[in-house]
Design a protein that fits this description.
Elements lengths: L11 H15 L4 H12 L5 H15 L1 H26 L42 H17 L2 H20 L5 H32 L2
Helix pairs in contact: 2-6, 3-4, 4-5, 4-7, 5-6, 5-7
């Protein structure tokens, strides 16, 4: 039984069917140029300037000591989100924590969707639930938005998060449900590490007096 059917309240087959249909409605062949754009969006290099911008804003707003703590908490938030997702894909440091959990294949490897899915590249692991991409970007979005506290930035980071999540559907790496679960994991991790950062900030401030 999968994670979100544990209560037995939701019909697993019906939800899978809905998830498949929604995925097929969002996944399409946009041509080589679109493939390159989505692979770039889904990668890391494109977003390095964003991370540097976040660091610069936090440094200017809170000072270098607080910025160091923020970077540490941001890294932990994203790392924890990624490791938690790995539990359900049997990958990463916690891959053996729940060995009986039934893994779910990525759309590109799902037999029922064979021939219906646009797949730019098969160079991915076999399992997609829960989405680490969604979890890590959500963790980054939450902790940075709460630290920066600027409406324009918040709107921008939400749109960036949605774009990255959509790129995972376009690339046939994740079903919508994989992404929703990943977002939930990331939000929890981001909030938790934000509050830890603020507590650490108070401790450092007291020690610096």
């Amino acid at each position: 039984m999968s994670l979100w059917w544990a209560t037995g309240v939701i019909d697993e087959n019906a939800m899978y069917d809905f998830d498949h249909k929604l995925f097929l409605a969002l996944n399409f062949d946009g041509g080589h140029a679109m493939d390159v754009v989505m692979e770039t969006v889904s990668g890391t290099a494109m977003w390095i300037p964003l991370y540097l911008f976040i660091l610069a804003v936090v440094w200017r707003k809170y000072g270098w000591k607080s910025a160091i703590g923020f970077v540490a908490c941001l890294a932990v938030a994203m790392g924890l989100a990624d490791m938690f997702c790995g539990i359900f894909k049997h990958s990463g440091l916690l891959k053996n924590l729940w060995e009986s959990f039934p893994v779910r294949q990525r759309p590109m490897f799902t037999p029922e969707l064979r021939g219906l899915v646009h797949v730019p590249s098969y160079a991915h692991g076999p399992y997609g639930t829960v989405s680490s991409h969604a979890a890590t970007v959500a963790a980054m979005a939450v902790i940075s938005a709460m630290a920066i506290r600027n409406r324009i930035y918040t709107v921008a980071i939400v749109l960036i998060t949605l774009l990255i999540c959509y790129s995972r559907i376009y690339l046939a790496c994740h079903f919508p449900m994989d992404l929703l679960l990943g977002l939930a994991v990331g939000v929890i991790s981001g909030f938790g590490m934000y509050f830890l950062w603020k507590k650490l900030d108070k401790v450092v401030a007291r020690l610096s007096r």
